[in-house]
């Protein structure tokens, strides 16, 4: 970040919102919160992974990040990768139904996450009075993973906020706007427009 | 005739969507038609609400950078810097990605 960036305006959320960071007025990184997984939840999650491995064999590999989020992926890519992926994620979703875990993916066809949190935290945390105390209608939300029911940016669609998609356009949910310019170039286009109008107002 | 037997009320000109294998496995039956916003339409949408906006919330990978593990480019950082200086809160979230300085 540039030295003159007003860090007190910056909030960072890692591991699908399992841990949140902000900055002090003097620019020191502060941990705002961290969600811990309980021993019971850990056992449930580990059992789920075991069942997945039992069903799909050595093609599945699992990595745990900071206790809360587990990323599961297929080791070997192959011609039936997507079919395999949807079978595995569907199996996991059914197994963990009626638990606090969410099953979602940021890379459809390659990897999926099992997490207690979801990406709505990047908006919901800002609504807390001790943070920015904002309302959803005061936010613009931008993501690239809304295609298909397992896409993890879908959880970012907080009701009342203006939501933009700079990713794929296949099987999008209602209630968002999809930009013609994709990826970070699309995000830049949006930011330039906001800056232009903000300057006109001030 | 056949469509009628299947319970589909189709007329000439209707489009039939047959899901691909991938879509079938996602449990999809049809794909929503999406209208993409170009810069001019986007500007028209943003103009009336820009005064209310106090925070921008971003996914990191593929939205602010090119893909997982890639750095956010200098121009994007400058744009974010400009907005933060205007009093806009910037919130960034990642799934399996990570932040660096």
Any overview of this molecule?
The complex is a heterodimer of chains A (202) and B (101). In chain A, 29% of the residues lie in helices and 25% in strands. Chain A has 202 residues and is α+β, with helices and mostly antiparallel strands. In chain A, a hairpin with a 5-residue loop joins β2 and β3. Chain A is globular and about 60 Å long. The model of chain A has no long low-confidence stretch (mean pLDDT 90). With 101 residues, chain B is of the alpha+beta class. Classes of the chains: A alpha+beta (202), B alpha+beta (101). At the A-B interface, β1, α2, β6, α3 and β8 of A face α2, β1, α3, β2 and α4 of B. β10 of chain A pairs parallel with β1 of chain B.
Strand content of chain B: 5-15%
Distance between the termini of chain A: 25 Å
Low-confidence stretches of chain A: none
Which outline of chain A best applies? globular
Helix % of chain A is 25-40%
Shape of chain B: globular
- Secondary structure class of chain B reads alpha+beta
Strand order of the largest sheet of chain A: 4-5-7-6
Task: Tell me the helix content of chain B.
Answer: 25-40%
Radius of gyration of chain B: 21 Å
Report how far the terminal alpha carbons of chain B are from each other.
65 Å
What's the number of extended β-strand segments of chain A?
A: 10
- Strand order, main sheet of chain B: write it out: 2-3
Q: How many helical elements of chain A?
A: 4
> What's the assembly state of these chains?
heterodimer
Overall pLDDT score of chain A: 90
Main sheet record of chain B: 2 strands, parallel
